[in-house]
Predict the structure.
Amino acid sequence: MPRSLKKGPFIDDHLRKKVEALNVRNEKKVVKTWSRRSTILPELVGHTIAVHNGKKFIPVYITEQMVGHKLGEFAPTRTFKGHAVKAALVRAAAAAGVPAAGAAPAAGAGGGGAPAPKS
């Protein structure tokens, strides 16, 4: 459920103060934060915020299209390494000498014009 419009967007006070200070001094430093829940405001555009993902800080350069989103959306907490089942099938097919799914058959191989049955 979204936050009430009456309350306005949420941004942690310590982060807001740091960015306001940078804007006053006209500086572009990287600001480290653990506040993934803070909403990106127009005042943050052009700054680089290092958002903690639970393990390390991910630098996020703020653009106009990010306004209204949360900082945590741009620092993923999980590393996707692929689907294990699909990877195992590809390895098994390669070991059996079956060509990859998208590969064209070699010239003269297979005899005839009928396509190979799919398994």
Q: What stands out?
A: Helices lie at 13-25, 84-96.
